[in-house]
């Protein structure tokens, strides 16, 4: 059997399994193992399964072992634990509180504060879904209490939650860096400006929306004194410090990304205990949650690594690059094709699954066009960010709907409110594609 044929059939089979809702890890892992077995079994031209068994086991286990023992991968549990502990210690919620106190009198001020709070949470946790889940419990009930339109009260948090994909630290950037062998520190810095632009874009959407429909965001009669405003602003210093440690330390060459994660986690833990918000006994459940999330991500990544080994064995990447060269497809059309593929996949799959499924095939084609992998990583993560709020399966939308205690807001209402945020996301995406300097100016100045 031709090796390239095995590769193409394997990819088609993975897509079929995903279409019938088989979990991504089982789909790519199972197909990869069977595909590797067939490659070794047909190596001599005739089917000899006795020669394939141990070779398949050896390659599968070595691929998984190399991934799990990757130094860079240790950042994922550190940043996930940081997000849990920072929330328990009250560090993340104080960013929202400070923004709410200062912006409460502005039209749509609490919604803008929610987006700002999501941005601050993202700068600590690195997870979009965790951001949407946590801030959904805090921000959305407050806006509903103030008689905000449910579309605005939910959509602003669902969209703001996606900032965890771009604003460093980002779990998606870590996975992208491992699979493409790119600098994770540079990826973190590359995502900072696009993340800030996205945040400002969401705030602009809220301002314009409220200007046109003032009734969706009634002005509250709540008044805060200057002393209360200063207290709220100063109360956010732990979150600011954590962000400075991660970004400032990496940019200044003081820490690696992993060291910054470990130091931030240590600070958040000590701060939470000294502040009385958490005890030593509280750490165990938080670490248990971290282990569950980390285990899920690691399992998907391990199965993806086996799939990468299959792609390498079959030479599928070289075959696709050759076909791309024969088609005379220009870089612009290639990027359009990439955007369409990721936007469609984002409607049905989770971001980690999309990334591990597509990167083994996508990166060789990107390199054939001599594109910058750091910039391309930012574009990919922005596309995955958009997928989190795209119907019919926008993960942030379903996560948010599940944490609203009143259960009075329907999924359709959230999606209707997100139309405006999706529009600004497309604008930002076009800006990142057309002006790579936005993503590269910080990492290139290190």
TrEMBL record:
Single GO MF annotation: transmembrane transporter activity
Transmembrane segments: 12-40, 152-179, 191-211, 232-254, 260-278, 290-313, 333-361, 373-401, 421-442
GO cellular component, one term: plasma membrane
Localization annotation: Cell inner membrane
Keywords: Cell inner membrane, Cell membrane, Membrane, Transmembrane, Transmembrane helix, Transport
Membrane topology: Multi-pass membrane protein
TRAP C4-dicarboxylate transport system permease DctM subunit domain segment(s): 13-438
Superkingdom in the source lineage: Bacteria
Subunit organization: The complex comprises the extracytoplasmic solute receptor protein and the two transmembrane proteins.
Family note: Belongs to the TRAP transporter large permease family.
NCBIfam families reported for this sequence: dctM
Function statement: Part of the tripartite ATP-independent periplasmic (TRAP) transport system.
Name the record gives this protein: TRAP transporter large permease protein
Organism annotation: Pseudooceanicola nanhaiensis
């Amino acid at each position: 059997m031709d090796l390239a044929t095995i590769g193409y059939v394997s990819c088609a089979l993975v897509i079929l399994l995903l279409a019938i809702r088989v979990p991504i890890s089982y789909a790519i892992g199972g197909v990869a193992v069977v595909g590797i077995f067939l490659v070794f079994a047909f190596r001599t031209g005739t089917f000899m399964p006795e020669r394939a068994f141990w070779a398949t086991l050896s390659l599968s286990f070595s691929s998984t072992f190399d991934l799990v023992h990757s130094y860079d991968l240790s950042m994922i549990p550190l940043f996930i634990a940081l997000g849990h502990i920072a929330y328990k210690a009250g560090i993340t919620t104080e960013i929202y509180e400070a923004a709410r106190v200062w912006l409460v009198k502005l039209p749509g001020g609490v919604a803008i504060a929610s987006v700002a709070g999501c941005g601050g949470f993202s700068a600590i946790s690195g997870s979009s879904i965790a951001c949407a889940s946590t801030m959904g419990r805090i921000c959305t009930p407050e806006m509903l209490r103030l008689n905000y339109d449910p579309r605005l009260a939910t959509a602003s948090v669902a969209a703001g939650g996606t900032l965890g994909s771009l604003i460093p630290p980002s779990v998606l950037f870590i996975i992208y860096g491992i699979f493409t062998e790119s600098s994770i520190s540079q990826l973190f810095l590359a995502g900072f400006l696009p993340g800030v632009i996205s945040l400002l874009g969401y705030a602009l959407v809220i301002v314009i929306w409220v200007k046109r429909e003032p009734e969706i965001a009634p002005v509250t009669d709540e008044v805060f004194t200057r002393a209360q405003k200063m207290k709220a602003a100063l109360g956010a210093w732990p979150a600011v410090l954590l962000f400075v440690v991660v970004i400032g330390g990496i940019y200044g060459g003081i820490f690696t990304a992993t060291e910054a994660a470990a130091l931030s986690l240590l600070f958040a833990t000590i701060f939470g205990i000294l502040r009385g918000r958490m005890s030593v006994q509280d750490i165990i459940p938080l670490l248990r949650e971290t282990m569950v999330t980390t285990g899920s991500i690691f399992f998907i990544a391990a199965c993806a690594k086996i799939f990468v080994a299959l792609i390498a064995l079959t030479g599928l990447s070289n075959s696709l690059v050759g076909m791309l060269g024969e088609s005379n497809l220009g870089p612009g059309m290639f990027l359009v094709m990439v955007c369409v593929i990721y936007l469609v996949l984002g409607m049905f799959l989770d971001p980690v699954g999309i990334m591990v499924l597509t990167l083994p095939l996508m990166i060789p084609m990107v390199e054939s066009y001599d594109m910058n992998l750091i910039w391309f990583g930012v574009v990919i993560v922005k596309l995955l960010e958009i997928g989190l709020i795209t119907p019919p399966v926008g993960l942030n939308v379903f996560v948010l709907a599940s944490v609203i205690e009143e259960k009075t807001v329907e999924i359709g209402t959230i999606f209707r409110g997100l139309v405006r945020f999706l529009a600004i996301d497309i604008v930002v995406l076009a800006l990142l594609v057309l002006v790579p300097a936005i993503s590269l100016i910080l990492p290139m100045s290190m």
